[in-house]
Structure formats: C-alpha cells, structure tokens
Amino acid sequence: MMADLDGTLVDRDAAFSRSVARFCEHHGLGSEVVPWVMDLDEGGYAPRDRVAYAICVRFPELRPSDCWSLLDDGGCEDVELADDVAAALDSLRADGCRIVVVTNGPTSMQERKMFRIGLDRFVDGWVVSGTEGVKKPEPEIFRIAAKRVGSTLDGAWMIGDNPEADIRGAHVLGCRSSWISRGRTWPHEDFAPTRVDTDVASALLGVRAM
C-alpha cells in the first residue's frame, strides 16, 4: 500500500498554518496575514521562491532569511500524527500489509516531518521526490516505491488527497486508489478513484477490508 504524506497521513496545512501564526506573532504582523500566506502557499504546491518573494514585497521590514526560514520549516515543528491514523497503520502492518509513503517535496523537510512524529515506526519505507529526481504523478516514483518495500504494483493501492499527483498517478498505472476528499467533490470526469473516503483512517481500514 502506498500513501501520500502531506494532506493524507498528516494534516500539513493545519501544521503550516500554526507555524505561520507563530511567525506573524513573532514579527508583529496581523492575524489577517495568516490566511493570506496560506492562499499564497496553495497547500504547499506553490513554488517556495514565489511565496518568499511575495512575503518580502508586502513586508519589506522582514529579512529574506526570515521568510525562507518559515518556508524551509514547512510546518515541520507543528505536524502531528493522529492517534486513529497511527492505530490504522499499526493494524494494517500487523495483518502483513507493507506500507510505503510516497511524497513530493524536499527530502530534508519530508523526512524531518516523518521522524518528528515517529511515522517511520509505522511504515515499511518511504520515497521522496527530492531524493529520487521524479515526482508524482510520474509513473517511475510509484515503481520505485514498490521496489523499496520488495513488492510490485500488482494489486497495489494508493491513498492520497491530490486528484492529480496521487489518484491520476495511480490510475495511469492501473493501481487501485482511495481519494481523501475532506468534503470536496471529485473534480474529473475522465478518471475516478476506486473509492472516496472523508479521512485517512477510514481509507486505511476500508482498503484493508477490500
């Protein structure tokens, strides 16, 4: 089983929002800046140099290094592993399921998140785009993930919140998938996930039952 990290196994946006709020308080910026930065960030998919530039232009009193410090942290210090997600992962592995995290992003940031919350103890391996030189939805990163845990993509599942990076990537390879909707409506007509789940714990346990 393959699972995305940000927005799936961990609530990256909630963590980054807390980091931004602390940053704003430290630098004497108003609370209204938090949603503005979150919009700029686009759930972590916006280029970081573009986000840093926009912050520095709006607040010239900030040093560029201050802005980059916020973005380099990426919410790492505030990320959490929910108890129900940890329990579901534990249960799956007890049943013999091999779990590999497949995530886009800088290796140092993504591994820092996983080690901080102890996620490495609940999975069998991980693949980070920053290390591999390929990113979701490119097929090769999913093939690397399967090999990382000594498996193949035959019968594999991909669990993720991003329709393009996670679900389209799985669809192209013929893998089954669970889309973490978090109340959203599926946006595509040309392909669809195998199942839709509102949260990741439900997805993990639901996939086990299939």
How does this model look, in words?
The protein is an alpha/beta fold and 210 residues long. It folds into 2 domains: 2-11 and 79-209, HAD superfamily/HAD-like (Rossmann fold); 12-78. It is 49% helix and 10% strand. It contains 10 helices and 6 strands; from the N terminus they run βαααααβαβααβαββα. The protein has helices spanning 12-26, 33-41, 48-58, 64-73, 83-94, 107-117, 129-132, 139-148, 163-172, 200-209; strands at 2-3, 100-103, 125-128, 157-160, 176-180, 195-197. Strands 3-2-1-4-5-6 form a 6-stranded parallel β-sheet, with helices on both faces. Helix 6 links the parallel strand 2 and strand 3. The longest helix is centred in the first third of the chain and has 15 residues, at 12-26. The chain is elongated. The chain starts with a strand and ends with a helix. The mean pLDDT is 96.
How are the SSEs ordered, and which strands pair?
Blueprint: E1 2-3, H1 12-26, H2 33-41, H3 48-58, H4 64-73, H5 83-94, E2 100-103, H6 107-117, E3 125-128, H7 129-132, H8 139-148, E4 157-160, H9 163-172, E5 176-180, E6 195-197, H10 200-209
Parallel strand pairs: 1-2, 1-4, 2-3, 4-5, 5-6
Helix pairs in contact: 1-2, 3-4, 5-10
CA gyration radius, whole angstroms = 18 Å
Strand tally, please? 6
What is the second-level CATH architecture of the largest domain? Answer: 3-Layer(aba) Sandwich
Order of helices and strands: EHHHHHEHEHHEHEEH
Described by the principal axes of the CA atoms, the overall outline is elongated
From the N-terminal CA to the C-terminal CA, the straight-line distance is 13 Å
Q: Please, what is the average pLDDT?
A: 96
- Proportion of beta-strand residues: 5-15%
Oligomerization state: single chain
Total tally of structural domains: 2
Q: Helicity level, as a percent range?
A: 40-55%
CATH superfamily of the largest domain: HAD superfamily/HAD-like
Per DSSP, the total helix count is 10
